[in-house]
Amino acid sequence: MPTNPKKSEDRPEGDRIAKLLARAGVASRREIERMIADKRVTLDGKPVETPATFLKDLRGVSVDGKPVGGPEPAQLFAFNKPTGLITAERDPAGRATIYSALVNALPKGTPRMMPIGRLDLNTEGLLLLTNDGGLKRTMELPSSGIPRTYRARAFGEIAQEQLEALSEGVEIEGIRYGPIDANLDHGSGGKGHKNHWIEITITEGKNREVRRVLEYLGLKVNRLIRIGYGPFALGDLPRGQAARIKKGDLDRFVASLKGGRR
Predict the structure, then answer these.
(1) Burial tier of 69 (Cβ tally within 10 Å: 0-12, 13-18, 19+)
(2) Taken in order 101, 102, 103, 107, is the CA torsion positive or negative?
(3) Catalytic one among 10, 44, 120, 181?
(4) In terms of DSSP bridges, do strands 175-177 and 170-172 run parallel, antiparallel, or are they unpaired?
(5) Taking the model in full, what pTM does it have?
C-alpha cells in the first residue's frame, strides 16, 4: 500500500475550511464543525454548509460576523492548571473550565489559545496552550512520541522492580500501553502501605494512562501533577498562572518534531 497516495483528480485544491480555521487559531476542528452546523461561519456573506468546503485561503471567511485574517504566528504558553478545572471550552454540567482561569492568566491581546491534550478534573500541572491548530494536532499524536512526565503520589505497596517492569509496556483490560519509565522518588522506596511519590514518563498519552497503570499495580493515586511535556517543564510557575514559551525555544522544538509539521 503506498504511503503517499496520489491526490484524487476530483479533489478540489486547497484545504478544508475546518482545517484552515483551526490552523488560524479560531477553534479546534471539532468546535469549528459545530460552528458551521450552527451557521456561524460564512463565506462571502453566505453560511458555509459543510466543514468539507475546500479553500486556498481564508479570504472572505467570517466567524460570528467578524472577518478572519490570515494565521497569526504560532505561540505556545505553559499554564499551571489547578485541580477542579475542566480542560474544555464549556462544560454541560456547569463546572469551571480552564478558560475561567485563563481570562486573568494570559496577557491582554493574546489570541485564542487551545489546550494541547487534556488534564482531567483532578490532575494538575503543566498544560500547554497554542493558537496553532496544526501544532496542537502534531503534539497530541501518539506517533509523535513526545514524552509527558508526571509526579504521582500514590498509596499502597510498591517496589522499584515492579515499576521497572513497565519499561516493556503493559496490557490492561485489553488496552496495550507502550513502554513506561517509572521510578520511586529517593527516600520513597521500600515496601509497606504508605504514600509514595513516583515519577513516571509516558509517550502515548492515552486517556487516564498514568492513573490506570498505577491502579493496575494496586496503588491508589491521590495526587497527580504533570511536570513536563517534551522539552517544556512546569518549573516554578505558580498555580493558575501562564507563561509564554520563548519563540526561539518553540522554533527549535518545531524543527525537531519527527516528520515536521503535519
Answers:
(1) exposed
(2) positive
(3) 120
(4) antiparallel
(5) 0.76
